[in-house]
Write a structure and sequence with these properties.
Elements: E1 2-18, E2 24-43, E3 47-53, H1 66-78, E4 84-90, H2 100-115, H3 122-132, H4 136-141, E5 144-148, E6 153-156, E7 163-169, H5 176-189, H6 201-209, H7 212-218, E8 220-221, H8 224-230, H9 233-243, E9 248-251, E10 258-262, H10 265-275, E11 281-287, E12 293-294
Helix pairs in contact: 1-2, 1-3, 5-8, 6-7
């Protein structure tokens, strides 16, 4: 049983105050893009995981692996022990701010649900996904959606047309907790108080109308200054995209992947050529695309 699952870019990531549970209240506009991992589940007496593809050596193979945790949580919900060999084929960057680990967890839920013949409704899978991590439910749904709370409470957003993206991949990853911590530190040092976040009306309208220039102007990521402080080279990468006419530029999620909105597929190709000298690798994609699907 093989499931294909997309990565995401955050079109708006507005970070509110720190909560008592250690999370922040967010308004997080997720946008699924055509950069996919595949997760296969094969019958086995035990739960194991194997990873292939780009940066496979950076993915944990123990209990810290989100796909393994997802399969265990699904078996626990079913109330009986199950086994599976999970094979993850990576294309989404590892620790790159595009929710690759969360995507693999979502794919594992769908693959194991089918392999084990459970037939759980999507609502149950979404409940399990929310317990695993803030980004996992969106990887099940795909498309474009606004996440509130810590990002796990999703409302789909209407989108017209297709948007074209270029992603500049950096060497190594960034720790999401470290980036959030740096965001809090920068705000405290500047004497700023986090405001309760709200969905950008300009961004929602641009998505609804298929207005790529309008969307480019509305892109925002409150974590971007923190990511740049931790990885100064990101500022140069973002500037290359600006200089080559990207409609919008931002760090994706907690980084270090940088996202560039293009006018068209042809413009995306031009941007990708210009960016190759500023990062480890460049990939082109489009969105929105569906979430985890059986292939």
């Amino acid at each position: 049983m093989t499931v294909r699952v997309p990565g995401k870019v955050n079109l708006q990531l507005s970070v509110g105050p720190l909560r008592d549970d250690g999370y922040h209240d967010l308004v997080n506009v997720f946008h699924a893009v055509s950069l996919f991992d595949e997760v296969s589940a094969v019958e086995s007496e035990t739960l194991t995981v194997r990873v292939e593809g780009d940066s496979a050596g950076l993915v944990p193979l123990d209990g810290d692996n989100l796909a393994i945790r997802a399969a265990r949580a699904l078996a626990a919900r079913a109330g009986r022990p199950y086994g599976a060999e999970l094979v993850i084929r990576k294309s989404i960057p590892v620790a790159g701010g595009m929710a690759g680990g969360s995507a693999d967890a979502a794919a594992a839920l769908v693959a194991c649900d089918r392999l084990w013949g459970l037939g759980l409704p999507q609502r149950d899978l979404l409940d399990i996904a929310a317990d695993l991590g803030s980004d996992v439910p969106f990887a099940l749904l795909g498309g474009t959606a606004v996440g509130t709370g810590r990002g796990e409470m999703l409302t789909p957003l209407p989108v017209q047309g297709t948007f074209f993206w270029v992603f500049a991949l950096a060497d190594g990853g960034l720790s999401t907790p470290q980036v959030y911590g740096e965001c809090d530190r920068l705000r405290e040092a500047a004497g700023e108080r986090a405001c309760w976040p709200a969905l950008s009306g300009q961004l929602a309208a641009a998505l609804r109308d298929g207005d790529a220039p309008g969307l480019g102007k509305a892109l925002v990521n409150d974590l971007q200054p923190a990511a740049i402080m931790l990885r100064r080279s990101l500022a140069r990468t973002l500037q290359v995209g600006r200089d080559r006419g990207a409609l919008g530029v931002l760090v994706s999620g907690s980084g270090p992947t940088c996202a560039f909105l293009a006018e068209s597929a042809e413009h995306a190709l031009d941007l990708s050529v210009a960016l190759r000298s500023a990062c480890r690798a460049v990939v082109n994609a489009y969105g929105p695309v569906p979430g985890a699907v059986v292939v």
